[in-house]
Give the backbone structure.
Amino acid sequence: MSSLSRRSLLAAGAVLAGSRRIAAGIRSAPEAARRLGCTANTRFALNAEIWYGERPFLDRVRAAADLGYPAVEFWPWRGKDLAALGRLCAERKLEVAQFTAWGFEPGMNDPKNHDQVEQEIRASCQAANDLGCKAMTVVGGNDQPGMTQAEMHAHITTALKRVAPIAEQHGVTLLLEPMNIRVDHKGHCLYGSEAAVKITRAVGSRFVKINWDLYHMQLAEGDLCGHLKDGFDQLGYAQVADTPGRHEPGTGELNYARVLKELHDLGYRGFVGLECWPIEGEAKAAERVAAADAWA
């Protein structure tokens, strides 16, 4: 064989080897991305309203699966193609961790709205059953003119007692979410975990618990681990975002490795919602979430 032929073959072999390395890199990049959501200790649910927000809703759900997350959460179910969502989740082996069944207005804290609350909770429970979803968030409501905070909280308790049997019948847990009023929800009647715990304990149903949004709780009261210990019996779900800015863990002041470990040590094994706005893109946000969950 001539040296020219040998050089040609060697060059061709080098090109082929390089092509294989490039192809392997192309394959490994998505594989690496899929591993980002397979976190060490906590099962996270990507918020499909916030992450990949420029994409159509179902494409956001696909992106959650591509990152390797086991579940998604979202806000109102109305206006979404639930049948298509259910098929997609089954295909991609995703769960729907929770969605919003009752929002800020009309307020659950006004008894004139309780008939409507009951009707909507019935419909939402059916939607949850159709999706295989086991939990739904409900919001107490904004301040009602002429009512004290104690009166509004009493009305929320009454409403939840009324719909608790409906939730139990459908096997769906209602998650009451307290907010913060320092930054995001001025004029909302329910903020901080202590008031929410008092309400759900008064309701006295294992199907009425708290959506413990740790971002809201940091702004409303601080001492996240201490309050989690005090009210853990009423925790039904948790959400995370860092402060300030409501971006992913690792971008602000919170030591989320410590907080997530506390949740785990207390015995929580449910999903944790990623209700946070990625500050430098979703892949980077997923890396930061994984890093926050990498505690021993």
